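Incident log, support desk, overnight shift.

02:14 A customer reports that sequence design results differ from what the structure should imply. Their input is reproduced verbatim below. On-call engineer (initials T.W.) acknowledged and began investigating.
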C-alpha cells in the first residue's frame, strides 16, 4: 500500500515520554508500519520530549505499550525507525533547530522521490501547545516539503480559549496544515451512524426523528478511575474530557441532516449546521459527581486519595446532561448524555428509544414498547435493534427481542481492522481532513457547553462509590424526563 507520494515521511511525536504516546500513538504507528500502510524504507517515527533517555530505555518504554508485537523481528525493525530527541524545554529554539537537522539528515538519506512530509503529532498538555507551535513553525517547518500538525484534545478550555488557540494556530499555519484530532471520529462505531442512516435502511432513516423517537441516550461508563491523571482531571473534569468532544461528535453524526455528499466540505457543513442548532445546555440539566472509595475493594480508592489530586478538588468524574436541538427533526427530544469514571462497568453506546405508537395493539405493561436501536463501542462493537415480537407460546404475550450484529465475528470484518488512532494518523499522512475537526466546529462545540461547565465548577459534586452506578440523585433527573438507560 506504499502509494504515498513522498520522498520521506517523518512522524514526530511531541510528548513521546507521556501516557498517550505509550498507550496509543506508538502502538498505532507500529501497526501502520507492520500492516504496510507506510513506506517502510522511507518512514521514521521521531520521539521528542524533555525527559532524558538512553535510546535503549526509550525503546523499552514504547515497546511496553505495543501489545500486538508478537513478532520480535518486526518490532526490532520498527524500533530502528524510532529515534528520540531530548529537548531542553518546549520554548527552547536551539532544541528545535537540533530536531530540524536530525529530520533533515534522515530525509537526505532517503532514496524516494516526491516531497518530504513532516507530521508533527502534539501529544502534550494544552498549556504548551502555543510554545511548541511557534517554535515548530520557526525552526522545524520544511521549507519545500509538506508539513502537518496534529493537535490533541482538549481544544482549549472554553469558547474564548479555543478562539485564542485557533487564532494562534491560524497565525502560524494554514488550515490545511492543521489536524484537530478527536479519536472518536476514527471509530467505526461512531462513523457507522452515517451508512445506517443514509445508506439503504429505510426502516431506520424514516424513523430517525422526533415523530418516532422519544429520546436519545449516550451511555459512557468506565470501570476504572482517573488514577494518575489527577493533575489533568482537576483542571478539566469529565465534561471537557469526553462529553464536550468525543460524545458530542457521536451525537452530531447521529443528529445532523443528510450531507449533500460524503465530501469533506459537505460533511463538515452538515456537522456545523447541527451544532448551530444545539441549544446551550442549561446548568439545571446537569448532574455532576465525584467518586469516593469502594466499600468492598480497598484497591479502589477515592478520586481525592490519588496522590496527583488536590485534597480539596471539586473535579467531576461523573456527569449526566440533557441536550436539546432546536430544529424540526429533533425539537423537544432530550438527548441524555451520561459519562463517568469508576463505575460498575465499561460501556459506550448511543441508543435511540422509540415511542410506542398510540394505536399499538400490543402495548407493554410499562406503557412503552421498549423498542430501541443501539450502536455500541464498548464492551463489544455491535448494533442491537430490539423489536416487539410474539413470545412463542399460547396467547399474544409480546417481548422485546434483540436483533443484533456483533462485529467481533470475523465474518463481518477485514483481516486488518485499524484502531481509531491508526485510521486518523493515516488520514493525516494522506492529508484527508474529513474526520478531523475544523476550526469553527471546534469553537462552536464549546458554545453549547460553556455555561453548563462553568456552573458545574461552582458546585460541589455529588458523591458516588467506586464501582457503583453513579450518584443516586441522577435517578431524579431521569425520572423527571421519563428516561431510562438500558
Ligand atoms: P502526559 O501528562 O503524559 O504528558 C505528556 C508529556 O508532556 C509528558 O511525558 C511530559 O514530557 C510533558 N509534560 C507533562 N506535563 C507538562 C507540563 N506541565 N509542561 C510541559 N510539559 C509537560 O499527557 P498525556 O500523554 O496523557 O496526554 C497528552 C495530550 O493528549 C493531552 O492533550 C491529552 O489531553 C491528550 N489525550 C490523552 C489521552 C490519554 O489517554 N492519555 C487520551 C486522549 C487525549 P517531558 O517532561 O518528557 O517533556
Ligand atoms: C480519552 C479520555 O480522550 O478518551 C479518557 O481522555 C477516556 O479519559 C478515553 O478514557 C476513552 O476512549 P475510548 O476509546 O477508550 O472510549
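02:41 Re-run completed on a clean worker. Output:
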Amino acid at each position: 500500500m506504499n502509494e504515498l507520494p513522498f520522498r520521506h515521511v517523518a512522524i514526530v511525536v511531541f510528548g513521546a515520554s507521556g501516557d498517550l504516546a505509550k498507550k496509543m500513538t506508538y502502538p498505532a504507528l507500529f501497526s501502520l508500519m507492520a500492516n504496510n500502510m507506510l513506506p517502510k524504507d522511507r518512514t521514521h517515527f521521531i520521539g521528542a520530549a524533555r525527559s532524558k533517555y538512553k535510546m535503549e530505555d526509550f525503546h523499552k518504554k514504547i515497546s511496553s505499550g505495543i501489545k500486538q508485537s508478537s513478532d520480535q523481528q518486526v518490532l526490532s525493525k520498527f524500533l530502528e525507525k524510532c529515534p528520540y530527541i531530548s529537548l531542553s524545554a518546549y520554548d527552547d529554539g536551539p532544541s528545535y533547530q537540533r530536531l530540524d537537522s536530525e529530520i533533515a539528515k534522515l530525509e537526505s538519506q532517503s532514496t524516494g522521490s516526491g516531497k518530504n512530509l513532516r507530521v508533527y503529532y502534539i501529544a502534550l498538555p494544552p498549556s504548551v501547545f502555543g510554545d511548541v507551535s511557534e517554535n515548530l513553525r520557526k525552526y522545524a517547518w520544511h521549507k519545500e516539503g509538506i508539513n502537518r500538525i496534529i493537535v490533541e484534545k482538549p481544544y482549549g478550555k472554553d469558547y474564548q480559549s479555543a478562539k485564542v488557540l485557533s487564532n494562534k494556530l491560524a497565525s502560524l499555519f494554514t488550515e490545511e496544515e492543521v489536524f484537530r484530532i478527536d479519536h472518536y471520529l476514527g471509530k467505526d462505531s461512531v462513523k457507522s451512524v452515517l451508512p445506517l442512516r443514509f445508506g439503504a435502511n429505510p426502516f431506520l432513516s424514516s424513523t430517525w426523528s422526533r415523530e418516532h423517537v422519544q429520546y436519545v441516550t449516550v451511555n459512557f461508563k468506565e470501570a476504572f478511575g482517573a488514577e494518575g491523571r489527577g493533575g489533568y482531571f482537576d483542571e478539566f473534569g469529565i465534561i471537557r474530557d469526553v462529553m464536550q468532544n468525543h460524545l458530542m461528535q457521536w451525537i452530531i453524526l447521529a443528529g445532523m441532516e443528510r450531507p449533500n455528499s460524503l465530501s469533506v466540505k459537505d460533511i463538515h457543513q452538515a456537522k456545523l449546521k447541527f451544532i448551530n442548532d444545539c441549544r446551550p445546555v442549561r446548568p439545571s440539566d446537569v448532574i455532576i459527581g465525584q467518586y469516593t472509595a469502594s466499600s468492598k475493594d480497598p484497591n479502589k480508592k477515592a478520586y481525592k486519595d490519588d496522590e496527583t489530586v488536590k485534597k480539596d478538588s471539586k473535579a467531576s468524574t461523573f456527569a449526566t446532561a440533557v441536550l436539546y436541538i432546536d430544529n424540526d427533526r429533533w425539537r423537544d427530544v432530550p438527548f441524555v448524555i451520561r459519562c463517568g469514571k469508576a463505575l460498575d462497568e465499561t460501556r459506550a453506546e448511543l441508543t435511540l428509544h422509540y415511542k410506542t405508537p398510540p394505536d399499538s395493539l400490543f402495548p407493554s405493561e410499562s406503557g412503552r414498547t421498549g423498542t430501541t436501536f443501539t450502536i455500541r463501542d464498548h464492551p463489544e462493537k455491535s448494533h442491537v435493534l430490539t423489536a416487539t415480537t410474539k413470545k412463542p407460546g399460547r396467547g399474544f404475550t409480546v417481548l422485546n427481542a434483540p436483533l443484533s450484529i456483533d462485529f467481533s465475528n470475523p465474518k463481518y470484518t477485514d483481516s486488518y481492522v485499524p484502531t481509531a488512532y491508526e485510521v486518523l494518523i493515516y488520514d493525516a499522512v494522506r492529508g484527508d481532513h474529513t474526520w478531523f475537526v475544523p476550526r469553527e466546529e471546534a469553537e462552536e462545540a464549546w458554545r453549547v457547553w460553556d455555561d453548563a461547565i462553568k456552573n458545574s465548577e461552582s458546585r460541589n459534586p455529588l458523591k458516588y462509590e467506586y464501582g457503583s452506578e453513579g450518584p443516586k440523585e441522577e435517578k431524579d433527573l431521569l425520572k423527571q424526563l421519563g428516561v431510562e438507560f438500558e
